[in-house]
Design a protein that fits this description.
This protein has 85 residues and is mainly β. It contains no helices and 4 strands. It has one domain.
Length: 85
């Protein structure tokens, strides 16, 4: 789910908050693409200045609920700086 807020805080920045939720409810697959009770939640926000410069930061949380999840302790942060010319 993503939103768009132009001129946030009365500035020339546009803010794009994003929320993602991934949940494997029931069952398992042979290749570990689907693990029962696995849950991952991601939050990020991108700020765009004059459709040219971007600053984005985010966090992904992996819950400890799945029994065989290799990512259960792999939470991470992201920071992205970019420009277009």
């Amino acid at each position: 789910m993503r939103g768009e807020y132009p001129s946030v805080f009365g500035s020339s920045f546009t803010m794009y908050p994003t929320l993602s939720v991934r949940h494997d409810v029931k069952g398992y697959s042979a290749d570990f693409q689907f693990l029962e009770d696995r849950l991952a939640i991601g939050l990020s926000t991108r700020f765009n200045l004059n459709k040219r410069h971007n600053f984005e930061f985010g966090y992904v949380y992996y819950a400890d609920s799945a029994a065989y999840d290799a990512f259960r302790d792999r939470d991470y942060y992201t920071v992205v700086l970019s420009t277009s010319f």
